Recover the amino acids of this structure.
């Protein structure tokens, strides 16, 4: 009897010992300040270059705020991994960083709870608000609170391969509507055998931009119901299907995701396609991965469906957010720093010079720094921002950050786009009617 | 008297029968790890499947709502159908084929036994993720993809391997066969080595040919191993994840690569819906248990 008792006690002791070991990862035991009094700020991202950007921001901050010095600790994780770790850490209430990059597609999921695990940045954003491009703020807004600031606007442009177009006798400047574009595409295909453009069977970028340029959305006005089979959505998706399967002037883009992958870069670099419609940040991909196209690419507004449509959209994005796991004493500081890092004028200029992005501050778009020589102007010419400035009031986007957005995106990416674009059947209308029916049902069951 | 008193009191206390305690101490690391990392998560997963999990904000008991939602999900049925087909295919290929390979390797007179053993076993040592990446490129829809290039010899294709339901299943089964044939071969080899050569000799005397020996000696003698391989193959088939994940990530077009575990993964880590995710896990557990129970019963494992 007695030896059993001992055994149990011994067992419990071992369990207790091993439990206390697991306590070691606890946040409270981590120091929040360095020995020389700098506040330690932990930052996670999925893009290595963003760490350089934030280190620059920390340097500038420390210069301007000598009494509130910061020591930035950065961690780079693979894209999906970062988001999963973050989700788990926020759910578990421990282990999350102080500030974190959240991609726009994930933001809706991250913010869907009634009380999102992030801190509101309203107070800190206020002094900058008039300078910031409003549509980019709204992406990370919930119940009147702003939870993050983006790195860029992601102004959509159509990039033309001028060399290829010249061979086909097409002047891209004459392409104003998608009809013109299709016509030009036929000419390119006939004269060079190459494709006018590509359309992705596994991403929604291009399609969403085309919907938004027609002032349409995937939700009804009050955002209570899906509206994925509206005329604008059907029209644009059908056009893309026709390009590939009827007119044969486009092909499905190789690789995944979308047109932002190494397989695609190699394909495009060979000069296989006459145009691509993507946000301004795609410039950095071209400069890095498509050296052969240097000096051959022109930026132009997106063609439109009809007069009154917008000639651009804004697409993609990544916000930096402040989690609710920042120690109380450094919350104010971290919030201020994050907003400073994005909205400060010098940092906004660095969004272009360091990252190749179109900055989220309106006023810097006209500044000389955005026209000075760098690897982007070497590649695309010096008038990049002269084109982009014209599009500044032309951007907009379909709703992708509503709490029901993941449901819609998920469905369209899983069924509609792979069928209509990937397989070429059924028609956009049939497929979207089906999607609307299924989504109505899903909305009902989830709300 | 005074000095002996306490001695008598303490002596029986100090006396631990190490002979009896030692075995428990030796197994305790495993038991503790098992309780902590298997039993506890298992129990709490069952509990969570009846809850709406809101992280540190706490969980609310919602009864069968997660299960109701689960049974309304197309993805769930697609996943079930996928893993069912996948399991059947892997069983059809990954039991007879390794058995045959093991038989040939084990036969007297087969040259280069060691070489073949290591060749068949090598894929197991590669990480699934690396192998998957390479297979993904091999199954590229481009004309220059490995499989499309082979088919072009016969004037077939090019196929969109990873976007079509049948070719996608083929891609999944191929990678499983490539990877697991070695392991199953090793199992069967060890089984074969347990069969006494006397029996074969006796069969030789009776004039049995190679096939008869395989059919009437090897297969029946391997039954315990076969049952074991079958059981783990069913379990592995239903828990398919890695291969599907490297091909498509957590979401595949038209659910052609969705499995129960990718569904668990997606609902938990992409959607943040841990309750529903646990419900899928519980469903997976029940399915595998039931299937394995039926299979072992049918094969007569408990007959003795």
């Amino acid at each position: 009897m007695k030896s059993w008792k001992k055994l149990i006690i011994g067992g419990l002791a071992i369990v207790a010992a091993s439990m206390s070991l697991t306590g070691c990862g606890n946040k409270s035991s981590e120091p929040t300040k360095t020995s020389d009094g700098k506040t330690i700020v932990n930052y996670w991202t999925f893009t290595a270059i963003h760490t350089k950007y934030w280190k620059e921001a920390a340097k500038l901050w420390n210069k301007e705020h000598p009494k509130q010095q910061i020591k930035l600790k950065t961690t780079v994780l693979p894209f999906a991994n970062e988001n999963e770790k973050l989700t788990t850490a926020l759910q578990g209430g421990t282990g999350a960083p102080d500030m974190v990059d959240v991609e726009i597609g994930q933001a809706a999921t991250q913010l869907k709870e009634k009380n999102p695990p992030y801190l509101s940045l309203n107070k800190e954003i206020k002094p900058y608000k008039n300078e910031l491009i409003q549509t980019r703020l709204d992406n990370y807004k919930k119940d009147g609170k702003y939870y993050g600031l983006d790195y860029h606007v992601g102004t959509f442009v159509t990039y033309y391969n001028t060399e290829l177009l010249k061979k086909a006798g097409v002047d891209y400047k004459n392409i104003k509507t998608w009809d013109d574009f299709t016509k030009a595409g036929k000419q390119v295909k006939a004269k060079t055998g190459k494709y006018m453009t590509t359309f992705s069977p596994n991403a929604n970028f291009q399609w969403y931009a085309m919907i938004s340029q027609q002032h349409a959305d995937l939700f009804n006005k009050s955002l209570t119901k899906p509206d994925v089979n509206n005329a604008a959505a059907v029209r644009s998706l059908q056009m893309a299907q026709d390009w590939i399967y009827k007119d044969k002037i486009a092909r499905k883009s190789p690789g995944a995701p979308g047109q932002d992958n190494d397989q695609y870069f190699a394909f495009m670099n060979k000069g296989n396609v006459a145009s691509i419609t993507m946000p301004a940040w795609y410039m950095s991909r071209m400069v890095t991965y498509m050296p052969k196209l240097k000096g051959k690419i022109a930026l132009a507004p997106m063609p439109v469906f009809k007069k009154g449509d917008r000639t651009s959209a804004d697409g993609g994005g990544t916000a930096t957010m402040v989690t609710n796991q920042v120690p109380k004493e450094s919350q104010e500081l971290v919030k201020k720093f994050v907003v400073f890092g994005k909205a400060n004028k010098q940092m906004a200029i660095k969004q272009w010079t360091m990252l190749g992005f179109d900055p989220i501050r309106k006023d810097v778009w006209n500044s000389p720094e955005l026209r000075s020589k760098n690897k982007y102007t070497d590649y695309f010419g010096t008038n990049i921002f002269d084109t982009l400035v014209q599009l500044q009031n032309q951007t907009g986007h379909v709703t992708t950050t509503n709490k029901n957005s993941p449901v819609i995106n998920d469905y369209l990416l899983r069924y509609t786009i792979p069928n209509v674009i990937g397989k070429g059947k059924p028609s956009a209308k049939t497929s979207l009617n089906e999607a609307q029916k299924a989504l109505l049902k899903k909305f009902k069951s989830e709300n | 008297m005074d000095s002996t008193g306490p001695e008598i009191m303490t002596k029986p206390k100090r006396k631990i029968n190490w002979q009896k305690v030692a075995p428990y101490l030796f197994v305790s690391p495993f038991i503790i790890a098992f309780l902590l990392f298997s039993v506890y998560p298992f129990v709490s997963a069952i509990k969570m499947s009846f809850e709406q999990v809101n992280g540190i904000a706490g969980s609310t008991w919602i009864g069968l709502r997660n299960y109701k939602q689960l049974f309304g999900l197309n993805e769930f049925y697609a996943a079930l159908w996928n893993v069912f087909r996948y399991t059947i295919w892997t069983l059809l290929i990954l039991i007879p084929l390794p058995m045959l390979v093991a038989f040939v390797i084990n036969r007297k007179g087969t040259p280069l036994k060691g070489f073949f053993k290591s060749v068949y076993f090598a894929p197991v040592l590669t990480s699934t993720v690396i192998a998957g990446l390479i297979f993904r490129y091999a199954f590229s829809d481009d004309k220059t993809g490995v499989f499309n290039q082979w088919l072009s010899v016969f004037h077939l294709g090019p196929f969109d391997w990873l976007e079509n339901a049948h070719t996608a299943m083929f891609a999944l089964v191929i990678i499983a066969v490539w990877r697991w044939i070695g392991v199953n071969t090793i199992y069967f080899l060890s089984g074969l080595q347990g069969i006494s050569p006397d029996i074969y000799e006796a069969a030789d005397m009776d004039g049995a040919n190679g096939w008869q020996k395989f059919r009437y000696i090897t297969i029946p003698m391997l039954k315990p191993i076969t049952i074991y391989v079958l059981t783990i193959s069913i379990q592995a088939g239903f828990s398919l994840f890695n291969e599907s994940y490297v091909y498509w990530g957590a979401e595949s077009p038209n659910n052609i690569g969705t499995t129960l575990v990718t569904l668990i993964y997606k609902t938990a880590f992409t959607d943040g819906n841990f309750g529903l995710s646990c419900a899928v896990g519980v469903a997976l557990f029940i399915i595998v248990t039931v299937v394995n129970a039926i299979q072992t019963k049918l094969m007569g494992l408990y007959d003795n």
About this structure: The interface with chain A takes residues 16-17, 20-21, 24-25, 28, 32, 35-36, 53-57, 69, 72, 140-142, 160, 163, 249-255, 269-272, 274 of chain B (CB under 8 Å). The domain at 68-298 of chain B is CATH 1.10.3720.10 (MetI-like fold). Chain B has two domains: 17-61, 68-298. Confidence is low (pLDDT under 50) at residues 1-6 of chain B.
